[in-house]
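Per-residue structure
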Amino acid sequence: MNKWIFRLLLLALLPAGAVAQDMGKLAEAVDKEKAVESVDKEKMTEAVSSGEVDYEKAYDAVDKEKAADSVDVEKVKEAMSTPE
């Protein structure tokens, strides 16, 4: 379940086409406990129960405000920056 939460947060919060230069730093930018709390587990289970992911239902299962609060924007910027 945590992998789905992380992926959904990235889909919801990163611009289309964005590529992290440092995936480790990007992962560290998310407070996993807060991220887990942002997900309605019943709705998420329903979204992935058919063997395929219903991305619209999965997206709707996430409280976007709580999810955004779980991300350290400065760490994301650092992970997304191009090394000099």
